[in-house]
Prior knowledge:
Blueprint: H1 15-18, H2 29-32, H3 45-48, H4 52-67
Keywords: Ribonucleoprotein, Ribosomal protein, RNA-binding, rRNA-binding
Protein name: Small ribosomal subunit protein bS18
GO molecular function, one term: small ribosomal subunit rRNA binding
Amino acid sequence: xxxxxxxxxxxxxxxxxxxxxxxxxxxxxxxxxxxxxxxxxxxxxxxxxxxxxxxxxxxxxxxxxxxxxxxxxxxxx
Length: 77
């Protein structure tokens, strides 16, 4: 008896590659908020669907916007 392991969903496509973005601006908080959870954590690649190159750029952009208080580090609970 063969047992099915896990469920593989459809691979998500990097939204930045589709838009042919060369850089990710840290001042565009509306775009960055899509990749941050409500607890303030950055979504991983396997969930967001970004490629490795754009995930690194996204991480630095989120960290920069946190440092100048455009995005919160965490939510007040």
